[in-house]
Design brief:
Elements (H helix, E strand, L loop, with lengths): L1 H13 L8 H12 L3 H9 L9 H12 L1 H5 L2 E13 L2 E10 L3 E9 L6 E8 L3 H13 L5
Helix pairs in contact: 2-3, 3-4
């Protein structure tokens, strides 16, 4: 009996708590799922915000667009962080580059913490990554110690 109780206790404490998710965890889980099931990845990340239920048409449109990416963009090889902006203690912006055969894509997440848990505020996929690259170059060139 004691062994069973210990096992149940260990099992319970080993299950990750979704209420403690931070934006980094949500993004990691999103990209892990995205590689095999784009619809589930989108459903899961949008599920963090109850208000997105009012945006079903826009989310379904995004799902259809992303399903066409393999035919239009080729294979996706992964994702790399471009920038992480802490706007306030409760609002973060993350910009990622998705590496497709044809060209890189930009994926921008905005997270907001209105009370005690992080929610997805906005998610955007875009082929317009040039401005981000140029801005990163300017920032790099203006950094102390750079010529």
């Amino acid at each position: 009996m004691k062994i069973t109780l210990c096992f149940v206790f260990l099992l319970i404490i080993s299950i990750p708590g979704h209420s403690q998710d931070n934006p980094d965890d949500l993004i990691k889980r999103f990209f892990d799922t995205f590689q095999s099931n784009t619809d589930k990845a989108l459903d899961d990340i949008y599920a963090t915000n109850v208000w997105t239920s009012e945006m079903k048409d826009a989310i379904n449109s995004m799902k259809k667009t992303i399903k066409n990416y393999p035919g239009e963009m080729g294979k996706c090889y992964g994702f790399e962080l471009i920038t992480k902006q802490k706007c306030t203690e409760r609002f973060f912006l993350y910009s990622y580059m998705a590496r497709y055969d044809r060209q890189p894509m930009k994926v921008v997440f905005e997270f907001y913490k209105p009370n005690d848990k992080w929610i997805l505020y906005s998610l955007n996929f875009s082929a317009d990554i040039d401005d981000d690259v140029e801005l990163a170059e300017k920032h790099y060139l203006q950094s102390p110690g750079k010529n």
